[in-house]
Predict the 3D structure of the following.
Amino acid sequence: MATTIKDIARKAGVSISTVSLVLNRRGYVADETRERILSIIEEMDYKPLHSARKLATQKTGNIGYILWEGHFSEVEMFYSQVFLGMEYAARKNDYYILLTTVNDHFDPRQDLPRFLQYNDVDGVALAGRVPLDLIHYLDKHAIPFVLVDYEVPGKNYNTIKIDNYNGAFRAVESLIEQGRKYISFVGGTFIHPSIKERYRGYKDALEKHGLLNNSYLETYSYCEDVETSRAIGEKGIKKLLKSRPEIDGVFCCNDTTALGVLSGIQSMGKTIPGDVAVIGFDDIPPAEFSSPKLSTVSVPKLDIGKEAYKLLYERIHNPNIMPQTRTISVDLVIRESSQTKNKP
Amino acid sequence: MATTIKDIARKAGVSISTVSLVLNRRGYVADETRERILSIIEEMDYKPLHSARKLATQKTGNIGYILWEGHFSEVEMFYSQVFLGMEYAARKNDYYILLTTVNDHFDPRQDLPRFLQYNDVDGVALAGRVPLDLIHYLDKHAIPFVLVDYEVPGKNYNTIKIDNYNGAFRAVESLIEQGRKYISFVGGTFIHPSIKERYRGYKDALEKHGLLNNSYLETYSYCEDVETSRAIGEKGIKKLLKSRPEIDGVFCCNDTTALGVLSGIQSMGKTIPGDVAVIGFDDIPPAEFSSPKLSTVSVPKLDIGKEAYKLLYERIHNPNIMPQTRTISVDLVIRESSQTKNKP
DNA sequence: CTGAAAGCGCTTACAG
DNA sequence: CTGAAAGCGCTTACAG
């Protein structure tokens, strides 16, 4: 019923091989023949059937996108945007992105995403923190994959990184330039390498400006070894503010935390940015709608997705290239929550 | 390299036809033979290759999920959750859900999602408001589809609806029972049928309790003919409150709007729920983290996804069934923003 | 209850 | 530059 390569061949008076050749832009076909075939394809609105092509080429045409379930279900819009970036990029090559989630108690024998079980993807993007066993599985089975915003210490995998260090450094420096002296860090678990890097940027900026005396870090940081949330932000800053009312700036490990910090500060009767300035990281959509609007380090999520796709694509079509890391740069966006101290 | 049906057949000493029969649980196969084949399949960890199976059966094994781009990029977590529900359900039948977006200026000749161009899906779920031309395309090409949280007046398509009317009715009734007398409606465009229904529920609840005098609706409602956002919520309630300071309750067309309403009320120096109570609709994640925590009508997003999948699945495997509408019921969740008036 | 054979719609050496 | 043929890994009538 749907038109097939045979219909095209018949109508063009050539063999299906020839049609296939022009379809795949390979081999030599007389210009005149090619034109004729092309116009017939156009005219009959012929589209090659994917499953047939896949069977013949032994490629799947699919790329998997695996996300820890918590990241998808929660307020976290971050990785959905990254996904969207991949989807955009994949359109050009007619790849499909299959999105699925894994959860914490991951057992490769039980919980393997079905597209992995059925060998139904040519490669996989892993978004954020994912189970190590999953990474090992991919590694062992030589399935091309790329880590997005995550890394495994001591291992050299294909990865897309965010420039966490410099983003954090610049954010904290801007607080210092505004005249802030007592700058807190509020964050979640350091299992996530991004958070660790942001903390490092925070520390180094303080050091560069000579603020980092003996017990600064212990005094002004609040980190809890759990996933980030508004809740820990709110809790953290309240605790800090109670013992250290002189705090006049906060750099948060991400926007989710920062949103909690905002409420925390306000609930203690302090003004933002009058009394204390706040900067987050990520630039998730709610950051624009908070009150005051959140200053943050903006991460180009769509670009990350695109880059992840590109790297994966190259890797799939050239399995011999060495694993590489690409770093995506970020931008400091000053909104309302971190204006200069003297003009609130 | 990967093990195929031939390997299994050889090892079991049968033909590939027989293996195929047990794989598909059809036809008669001697129990003893079946057992043997099954255990060999297990042992060799054999998985049939999807593309081969698809070629043979002329099915794609894919379902499309189409979302208006705005809904995906914005704060809107709603339809991502619905997607997740579909994905969960699809795992059981080894269907893949292909998620893509369309945008506003949709031209079926240009902007058709690639899985539609290539006939690569057995059916499609349309989430929320989508271009009419897209619906017409699917209808014309007899591609099974289901509308999720959307409907086309005068047309009888497969659809999953939210019980918007009753949810709204109950929410408003709860405000009335708390002693609220001047209850506003703040909302966005009525192009979205859900919002229209919620408004109807609001109106009927007022009427039932005899509150609906002549100009109540004109006086206390604020609706703007745009997509909902925090911004319109904030703007709307401020405007209403300025002319009508007696307002003591607000029912919002959704949580996004309600979040803006919360800020609006607070920025005018009024307390929630002391001075005015607020109820939203949807129960998106941020509703739990606002201050005060938002009372809302909770919509089971994962269930909606599951139900959409089921309906689509049935429709695909039995094209003759009549289009049907399934309504998902909702739950009123009272949190902090709508406590009783006398005990704030 | 089971096997031989045709077919699904492509691609890709291999001849010519 | 082009065609005939084999093959990708399955399913499905059809015999037996």
